[in-house]
Design a protein that fits this description.
Strand order of the largest sheet: 8-11-9-10-12
Mean pLDDT: 90
Radius of gyration: 20 Å
Order of helices and strands: EEEHEHHHEHHEEHEEEEHHEEHH
Number of strands: 13
Structural class: alpha/beta
């Protein structure tokens, strides 16, 4: 079974970034000069996937428009002789074919995945959350697909976190069967301190078999009527088995204000145009604060 499709849930309200997200989707907030969602899409495309399904809601049309063809903008840039910008805008519109599915109610991540069932069909697929940015020499999704191809079972991306912070994450317990690859025994959603010794935290990248959909349909809604993806993953793990992969790269939670600033600093330092100037600026800032 090959992975040829990806699902990007982008229906969230982005309340942690209000008032900035009052009229702008949180996924369109920029990391240096590109929307956060573009980095996620580019990672997926670089991993060999071009069929991407956005799970949207009211007020998210800017995301679809960003990856669509813009005749007026391209004409303007061409007339002004701005060839570099024109090339970049055209490349964005050619990255993917835009497919969108509406999540009519905010009923959780599991529900957001479930509403793509008719589009995904009987195919394995990637789920990538727009809050999680990963800087890696080899795209995180590509690393995970290699693991999926070897074991032919669902794969979840994980990273190690301090033991005192495990209560903030979904945690996996399991046995390491290859370097960085763990056969999952149990998934725990935000465990209470002292209830697990594992520090392997789930981040927003999943390679899933289509059998996840029946598990989602059987999942009992929790608080607020939400369907939790972790509950469905636990059910799928018991039925078929599942793996966790400790990927190589730096992950930033762009849905958190501090993580968002961290991502801007890292990606800014790596930026081909301004990276050098930015590095010198930061040195001066640090020097000034120390005096």
């Amino acid at each position: 079974m090959e992975i040829k499709k990806a699902v990007l849930p982008v229906a969230g309200m982005g309340t942690r970034f209000l008032p900035a997200t009052k009229v702008i989707p949180k996924e369109m907030l920029t990391i240096v000069d590109r929307p956060t969602i573009q980095f996620i899409v580019e990672e997926i495309v670089a991993s060999g996937i071009k069929e991407i399904v956005f799970v949207t809601s009211v007020g998210k049309s800017a995301i679809e428009n960003h990856f669509d063809y813009s005749y007026e903008l391209e004409t303007f840039l061409a007339q002004k002789g701005k060839t570099d910008l024109l090339r970049e805008v055209r490349n964005i519109s050619r990255l993917i074919d835009v497919v969108a599915v509406r999540q009519k109610e905010p009923l959780g991540l599991g529900h957001a995945v479930m509403v793509t069932e008719k589009v995904v069909g009987d195919n394995a697929f990637v789920v990538a959350l727009g809050d999680d940015l990963v800087w890696a020499e080899v795209p995180c999704v590509y690393q995970m697909i290699k693991v999926f191809n070897e074991y032919q079972e669902s794969v979840i991306a994980v990273q190690r976190v301090p033991e005192k912070e495990t209560h903030k994450y979904g945690i996996v317990e399991g046995e390491e069967v290859a370097p960085g690859v763990f056969r999952i025994d149990k998934l725990i959603e935000k465990p209470k301190p002292g209830t697990t010794t594992s520090t392997l935290a789930i981040i927003g990248r999943y390679c899933l078999r289509p059998e996840i959909f029946p598990c989602l349909h059987r999942t009992i809604p929790g608080v607020g009527g939400e369907i939790q993806l972790t509950d469905a993953l636990n059910a799928l793990q018991k039925e078929r088995g599942m793996y966790a992969y400790e990927f190589s790269g730096n992950r930033y939670d762009a849905g958190d204000k501090f993580g968002y600033l961290q991502a801007n600093v890292h990606f800014g330092l790596e930026h081909a145009e301004i990276g050098g100037k930015f590095r010198e600026f930061l040195k001066e800032v640090v020097k000034g604060m120390g005096s």
